[in-house]
Specification:
The chain is an alpha/beta fold. It has two domains: 122 residues, Alpha-Beta Complex (Aspartate Aminotransferase, domain 1); 221 residues, Aspartate Aminotransferase, domain 2. It has 13 helices and 13 strands. 46% of the residues are buried.
Length: 379
């Protein structure tokens, strides 16, 4: 049998899978992969139990359950003041990753370029490559801010897409009004450019308020905006998210979506349709801010330098006072020797540059945070 020719020859197992496997192997506390370990809202579980007993076991319509699409539209209008047509401008997806994949496939053709801001979530660049495009990686500043002049300098006639993530994983930063204005100016000066705004942590922001592209009339008609129910409701295993885009863009996305998954899990969709009207999303930021502050307070006597965290449920830390090892080697040592698994930030960089930073996930219950920080403070 002939050997298959890889479409992604340089891609191996993701750093998230590697560190979670290592955490299990060494029985370490897993602060690496970004998933909560505490119960979800009891009302959501009750809704799910009722749906399971009902007759929601067959395919939902390709774009999503009609009631869920309507509820999403109302959510977008309530929080961002944008009126969207549920039938033509919203798509329920199998997680935000599938939304990102499908949007990129819709807009990138062979030879096109897409700008990716590193450190970046690991699905962006490979998806661009699978579409025959070329990812153009621009490194963020050491504090995870963006030099928008560098971004604009990288735009060519072949650049079709700018990919941004706000709030930012792994950096924990949130775009300011100045950042959003810079994006608007870039889009205005380059009318051939589309925007993919990954906003899966949209409700997890603290001192700095998240500004959604949904609220920006000047550019949202050329933007794909992704959201995640998994992140918002602590149900990452449900793998359900959605995409918002104007009809002209969504029509192309749906053509591809129907041949990837066609439709998304019926029981999850019906459950979320029932639950969304009663869910208070305004409390999510304060919920995670308490966890962030709890983690930071317990870490104040450690030798780690905690960077500013304005959003997401990740805390980045510098370990220069502890070790001069690479972040990959240090993360491995933390897992194997000290019993706490983390993510090395260089894994988010195309050039693998290493600033001696690691990422903790604080979306954990208090007992887990206490046990983990006790170990970390002894290092």
């Amino acid at each position: 049998m002939s050997e298959i020719k890889s479409k992604l020859p340089h891609i191996g197992t993701s750093v998230f899978s590697v560190m979670s496997k290592m955490a299990a192997q060494y029985n370490a506390i897993n602060l690496s992969q970004g998933f909560p370990n505490f119960p979800v809202a009891p009302e959501l579980i009750e809704n799910y139990q009722q749906v399971i007993k009902g007759d929601y076991n067959q395919y939902m319509p390709m774009p999503g359950a009609p009631r869920l699409l309507t509820e999403i539209g109302q959510k977008v209008e309530k929080h961002y003041g944008r009126k969207v047509n549920p039938e033509t401008e919203i798509l329920v997806t199998a997680g935000a990753t599938q939304a990102i994949f499908t949007a990129i496939q819709a807009v990138i053709h062979p030879g096109d370029e897409a700008i990716v801001l590193d450190p970046s979530y690991d699905c962006y660049a490979p998806t661009v490559e699978l579409a025959g495009g070329k990812p153009i990686h621009i490194n963020m500043e050491p504090d995870f801010s963006v030099d928008w002049n560098k971004v604009e300098d990288a735009i060519s006639k072949d650049t079709k897409l700018l990919i941004v993530n706000n709030p930012h994983n792994p950096g924990g930063t949130v775009f300011s009004e100045k950042d959003i204005q810079a994006i608007e100016q870039i889009m205005e000066r380059h009318p051939h450019l589309y925007l993919l705004s990954d906003e899966v942590y949209e409700f997890i922001h603290f001192e700095e308020k998240h500004i959604s592209i949904n609220s920006r009339k000047a550019i949202r008609e050329r933007a794909f905006i992704t959201s995640s129910f998994g992140k918002t409701f602590h149900v990452t295993g449900w793998k359900i998210g959605y995409l918002v885009a104007p009809k002209a863009l969504m029509d192309e996305v749906k053509k591809i979506h129907q041949y990837i998954v066609f439709s998304v899990n019926s029981t999850s969709q019906q459950t979320l349709a029932n639950y969304l009207p009663q869910a208070d999303l305004s409390d999510l930021g304060s919920f995670y801010q308490k966890k962030r502050d709890f983690f930071r307070e317990l870490m104040k006597n450690s030798r780690f330098e905690l960077l500013d965290c304005q959003g997401t449920y990740f805390q980045v830390a510098r370990y220069s006072e502890i070790s001069d090892k690479s972040d990959v080697d240090f993360a491995t040592e933390l897992t194997q020797k000290h019993g706490v698994a983390v993510i090395p930030v260089s894994g988010f960089n195309k050039d693998k540059h290493d600033d001696h930073l690691i990422r903790f996930c604080f979306a954990k219950d208090e007992d887990t945070i206490i046990k983990a920080t006790e170990k970390l403070c002894k290092i």
